[in-house]
């Protein structure tokens, strides 16, 4: 006999121990060489470099506006394509527009019908570009000029892009074997903008320069330098900031992964406890932090995946790295190799040859199934009142259908 149970809670709901697909895998054909992803209230959005944006509507992956709405978009060698969703749910896409002849920084938003350009006053051509949105909905862009010796940062004030203090690296030779001092702009979970830049002054040593915006002035951290390390050229996925900044890199002859945390009191980068099973690591890898500032590392796990380019995830929990979900769960993505979080639930984006988005609901909080119901069963699907499969949604009736035939009606009240 089927059981029906109404549960009203204010916490994330139900725990699954395995990474699960969001919609169908291989939901788009073709070879799209650059992807990025962001989320808003359980809805994932992805950006393709062709330039198209898609989102999951609870049943299918659909286009947001017209696909390929601009041609000749600069590729990952210029910073890539960014999709970001502001706190009100408005999607923004940012990129370098090659239609201008060089590469012009461009930010657009979706008004419900079409994509609208916000670049009322940015006309400069750039060698590299980065973009982020803080928790209050403020938009920031960073674009490099003069062979990346100068990084210009602007903040959108609702009408036009207002210039902030630039980051200038005069006298540095920025030509190196991995691409001439690319940089990344990241906003921390505490709404603090950071700029991180790689510099290769002698073609051998790697120097990471980190800047933090304090009262409209950029404060520079102590440099991190190493001779036997590999840092991602664009730094997009190897720097993350919650209440503390983190760096991820490959070091030594054994190609092991190392996580560094910045100590403000010492003005120095310090190694975090060693990661397990990280010797002979392969690119890609990435670090990100959830809404509580906990660091997660996603990496290409050749040891446990028998040489295949599949990914595993670890997180730092009370000073110990622990495995997150099942290992070897998804083909590693060369260009979007860091997790994205929504209500502390991690989402991962796969390689372009096997496009998929996966999520791990158990990281979101309380395991209602085991702690309240005490049931030993597996979830088959979540549906709405019409019987359509959906993702977890707030303030909406949902029906949880289990493999033992039982059904529960649940509502997450917020």
What is the overall silhouette?
globular
Q: Give Rg in angstroms.
A: 22 Å
Q: Helix/strand-derived class?
A: mainly beta
Unreliable sequence segments: 1-16, 173-180, 366-376
Q: How many runs of DSSP E, i.e. beta strands?
A: 36
Query: Main β-sheet, in a few words?
Result: 5 strands, antiparallel
Number of DSSP helical runs: 1
Amino- and carboxy-terminal Cα gap? 32 Å
Mean pLDDT metric: 78
- Percent of residues in helices comes to under 10%
Approximate strand percentage: 35-45%
Describe the overall structure.
The chain is an all-beta fold and 414 residues long. 1% of the residues lie in helices and 43% in strands. It contains one helix and 36 strands. It has one helix at residues 368-373; strands at 6-9, 20-21, 35-40, 43-48, 52-56, 61-63, 82-85, 91-97, 104-110, 115-117, 128-133, 139-145, 150-156, 161-163, 167-168, 183-187, 193-199, 206-214, 217-220, 224-226, 229-230, 239-241, 245-251, 256-263, 268-271, 282-289, 295-300, 310-317, 320-323, 330-331, 340-342, 345-349, 357-359, 379-383, 398-402, 407-412. Strands 11, 12, 13, 14 and 15 form a five-stranded antiparallel β-sheet that branches. Strands 16, 17, 18, 19 and 20 form a five-stranded antiparallel β-sheet that branches. The longest helix has 6 residues, at 368-373. It is globular, with a radius of gyration of 22 Å. The two termini are 32 Å apart. Residues 1-16, 173-180 and 366-376 have low confidence and may be disordered.
Name the features.
mainly beta; five-stranded antiparallel β-sheet; 1 helix; 36 strands; globular
């Amino acid at each position: 006999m089927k059981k029906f149970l109404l549960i009203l809670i204010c916490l994330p709901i139900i725990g699954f121990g395995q990474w699960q697909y969001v919609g169908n895998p291989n939901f788009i054909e073709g070879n799209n060489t650059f992807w990025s992803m962001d989320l808003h209230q359980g809805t994932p959005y992805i950006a393709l470099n062709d330039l198209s944006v898609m989102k999951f509507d609870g049943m299918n992956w659909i286009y947001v506006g017209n696909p390929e709405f601009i041609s000749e978009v600069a590729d990952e060698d210029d910073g890539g394509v960014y999709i970001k969703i502001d706190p009100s749910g408005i999607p923004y896409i940012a990129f370098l527009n090659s239609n201008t002849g060089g590469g012009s920084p461009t930010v657009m938003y979706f008004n419900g019908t079409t994509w609208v350009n916000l670049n009322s006053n940015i006309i400069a051509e750039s060698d590299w570009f980065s973009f982020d949105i803080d928790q209050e909905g403020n938009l920031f862009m960073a674009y490099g000029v003069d062979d990346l010796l100068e990084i210009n940062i602007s903040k959108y004030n609702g009408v036009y892009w207002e210039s902030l203090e630039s980051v200038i690296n005069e006298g540095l030779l920025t030509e190196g074997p991995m691409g001439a001092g690319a940089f990344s702009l990241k906003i921390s979970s505490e709404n603090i903008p950071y700029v991180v830049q790689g510099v290769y002054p002698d073609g051998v040593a790697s120097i990471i320069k980190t800047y933090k915006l304090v009262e409209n002035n950029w404060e520079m951290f102590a440099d991190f330098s190493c001779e036997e390390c590999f840092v991602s050229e664009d730094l997009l996925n190897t720097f993350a900031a919650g209440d503390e900044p983190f760096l991820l890199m490959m070091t030594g002859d054994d190609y092991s992964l190392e996580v560094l945390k910045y100590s403000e009191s010492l003005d120095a980068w310090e190694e975090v406890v060693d990661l397990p099973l990280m010797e002979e690591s392969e690119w890609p890898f990435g670090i990100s932090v959830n809404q509580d500032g906990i660091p997660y590392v996603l990496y290409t796990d050749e040891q446990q995946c028998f040489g295949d380019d599949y990914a595993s995830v670890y997180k730092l929990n009370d000073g110990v790295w622990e495995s997150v979900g099942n290992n070897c769960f998804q083909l590693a993505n060369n260009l979007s190799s860091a997790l994205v979080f929504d209500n502390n639930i991690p989402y991962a984006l796969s390689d372009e040859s096997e496009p998929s988005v996966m999520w791990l609901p158990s990281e979101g909080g309380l395991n209602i199934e085991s702690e309240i119901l005490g049931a030993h069963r597996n979830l088959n699907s979540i549906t709405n009142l019409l019987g359509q499969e959906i993702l977890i949604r707030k303030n909406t009736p949902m029906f949880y259908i289990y493999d033992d035939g039982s059904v529960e009606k649940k509502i997450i009240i917020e």
